[in-house]
Amino acid sequence: MVFPPEFDLSTYRSFHGDLLGHDDAQLISHWESFGLVEGRTASTVHDRISLLNLLRSCQSILEIGVFDSPTLEFLRDDARTIHYADWLDKESLVLRAASIPGRNPDTVPNIEYVLSGGYAQITTRYDAIVSHHCVEHQPNLVQHFTDIRSKLSSGGWYLFSVPDKRRCFDHFIPESTIVDVVEAFYSQRQKPSLKSVLEHRCLTRHDYEASDDPYIDSSPQMRASMDLAWDEYSRQDYVDVHCWQFTPHGFKRLYNQMLGLGLVPAYSDFCVYCAGSEFYVALAF
Q1: Could you tell me the pTM of the whole model?
Q2: Is 36 a residue whose pLDDT tops 90?
C-alpha cells in the first residue's frame, strides 16, 4: 500500500460524535455501509496539509491550476524541484488577481508552463503532480488524466482536491455519470459545454441550504439568466465553470468505470479521502 488507508478507526471515532458508542466492528460496518457514501471523514488524510505531507518523499513536484495560491512552498528545499503551471501566464494571473476581491496578486508564483499551450511542452517527468479544485473544470476528463499520466515518472502520483458537490454551490446539480464523461471524450471537448455553462450560471446556489430547488423555477428571471449564459457561451472561446459534479463515493466509482472501459490509465493504488466540503484523491500509477 502506497497511501494511508481510507479508513482509520481512531480517526473515524474521533471525528463523529454520533459514533462514540460504537465498538470497532460496528465502526467498520458503518463505514462500509454508510461512511464513504455520506462523505464522512475517516482517514489520517483529512485536510490539505495532511494530503500534501505525503509528498515529502518526492523530489520533483508540479502543481497545476495554481493561480495565486501555491500550496507546495512549505516543501521547498535545495534538493527538491517544485514547479507551477496554470492556464494563463504570470502577468495575466497577476492582473486577474488584482481584479478579483479577496485575491492577492503578490502571491502569484512563477509559472513554469502556460497550459493553454498544451501538455506537450512539458518535457520533465515529475514524481508527483498536484491540483486543487482543478479536475472539475476540465472539459474532457479522460484527456486530463491521460495528460497527467504522461508527465509523471513511473510510479508517479497525482494528488488532488475536489469539491463535494453536495456541500458547495453545485448542490442541486445532478452528479456526473459515465455517459457524461464518454460523451465529452467522443466529442473531444475542449471547452465547457453549453449545459455546464447554463448549470453554473443559472442553477448553482451558494446559499443552497436555504434555497429552493432551482430546477423547478420557470420564472422570467430564470429565462433572463439563461439568455445571459447563452450569450456568454456563444461569445467566448472558454468560460470558467464547473464541468463536473462529484461526490467521494461517486468519483471512485466513476474512475473505475472509466478504467474498465479502457479510457484512463491503470493505477497501482487509489484512495479517496473524505474531508467535509471537499475530498482528496491519491492516484499512484
Answers
A1: 0.95
A2: no
Average pLDDT of the segment spanning 190-219: 97
What are the b/e assignments for 251-266, b being 16+ CB within 10 Å?
A: bbebbeebeeeebbee
pLDDT tens-digit map of 147-204:
999 999 999 999 999 999 999 999 999 999 999 999 999 999 999 999 999 999 999 9
Distance separating alpha carbons of residues 38 and 167, to the nearest angstrom: 11
* pLDDT tens-digit readout, 261-270: 999 999 999 9
- Tell me the HSE value of 164 on the side-chain side, using a 13 A CA sphere: 21
Fold (topology level) of 57-166+247-284: Rossmann fold (3.40.50)
- pLDDT at position 1: 63
Distance CA(165)–CA(246), nearest Å, equals 6
C-alpha–C-alpha distance, residues 139 and 79, integer Å: 35
Half-sphere exposure of 191 (CA within 13 A, CB side): 11
Q: Residue-wise over 59-74: b if at least 16 C-beta within 10 A, else e?
A: ebbbbbbbbbebbbee
Chain CA centroid to CA 180, Å: 17
**CA geometry: angle at 254 spanning 69 and 154, to 5°?**
65
CA–CA gap between residue 60 and residue 82 (Å, rounded): 6
Q: Tens digit of pLDDT for each residue in 42-74?
A: 999 999 999 999 999 999 999 999 999 999 999
Helix axes 194-202, 220-235, angle to 10 degrees: 140
Q: What distance in Å separates the CA atoms of residue 43 and residue 79, rounded to the nearest whole number? A: 30
Q: Which residue has the cell 515529502?
A: 56
Of residues 133, 130, 131, 113, the one with CA closest to residue 121: 113
Domain ranges for the chain: 1-44, 57-166+247-284
Are the C-beta atoms of residues 274 and 167 closer than 8 Å to each other? no
Residue pair 71/130 in contact (Cβ under 8 Å)? The answer is yes
Task: Write out the three cell numbers for 216.
Answer: 423547478
